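Hello support,

Our group uses your service weekly, and this is the first time we've seen a run hang past the timeout. The protein is Fibrocystin-L. I'm not sure whether the cause is the sequence or the server load. Input pasted verbatim:
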Amino acid sequence: MLDIGFAVDFCFFLLFVAFVLIIQSDLAMAVVTDEVQLKIRASFLELLEFGQFLRSDERPINGIDGLTWQLVIYPNGEKNENFGYFQAYVILSKGGFETSVEICIKDSDLKHQFKVVQADAGRIRHPMIIFNGDIHSSGCIKDEEFLVEAKIEIKKPLQMPNPIGNEAPVIRTFEDSFTLTLDPEMLCLNETGVPMIMDSQRNNGITWNVVYFPNGEYPDETDHVKVRIIISGGPAIITWTAGLAIGSSTIYTGDTIELTGEDGTGACVATHYQCKIANKVAGNIEIVVNVKFSKDANYITYRDKGQHAVSDAIHMEFPSGLFDLDYNGQFESSDNKLLPTPNCTCSQKNAKHTWRIRYFFAGEDEEDKGHLTLYIDVDNPKLEPISVKGTITIDGMVDAQPYTFEFQQQKSQSFLIKRLVSINDMRVKGALEGMDVGINCDATFETH
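Update from on-call engineer: The timeout came from a worker crash unrelated to the input. Re-ran successfully.
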């Protein structure tokens, strides 16, 4: 029979071992804490549009190289469906840490707490969301302002693990900025759709410039200042913000997006009313545009290490009447198209890759309406480095120069050519005179 005394002693031994393991686990982790406060004008709860935000400075986390965090606040919601709600996020520059966050509005009971293990860098998807009316009624507003506080607690191992596996790709990152100074008297005098083009900037193989519309680019953007950023020399990931200073606060609009080849991105960044308030407070209207590019350095060397190149061509013909249809890709469907699919596709196998071209006859989205938009899709199943370059021509267009393109990839992806040509230009230059329109894409693929 089992000795009862031995069994009791053995159980105590197991409990002791478990206790020691727990203590060792806690001792193997260090806790780092930090906090930040951001003062918000109460008027921003009504003045700002959805998507406009304020942010704290990036703050480093002691003891973890390269780890920073930041508080970002959308006083009137991040998206249209959040309009009328106050949203606050915490953003980490690295993932993989157990993180506890507390966000509160001082002098009120409005508080948000959570704990999460963030796998990747970026925004922690547990925002504080409060109805703006609750802020007004909470008693937190003092002298037309209220204070938001964020506290963060991060657990990290005392010995950070060494990375295992293949070397990470070499990413070259660089930043640049541009300041737009606006004349308040000219804001409403500019017609909608009339752009102001700034001088191009060039850095690390990427050329970029700012195009802005003082009175919006499209009719529904009237009474707004819109900024577009145009680049060539991609692919690259671009993080951009445009900030308008109102007193001691700066309201931002921005995004992070991957751009390929010649491409662009942008948004409305301020209303004319916001600009007038900025001018009244500071005596000027300045919008600072900041851009940060991240580019795989290997893309630069692909063409110098070519092993195999092959050329191919795709010719497509469409009834010219398709270009009279007044709708774009946002509203396409197989039910109301003249063709069996929402957008015509044509595929050919080439150099162990599959590629095709896609056309949106009246633009893919609302801002491209009235223009021909094109995609070049390359299926790259072996994930080989590949360079693609070529030309696009339209049959029958008088005095039209071929459109040239060039891009690099190491995965299956699409190369977008927005607004290849306006339908009006096609009509004026004779491309729509016949029953059919012919479009030609000649491309050379170089694998490495």
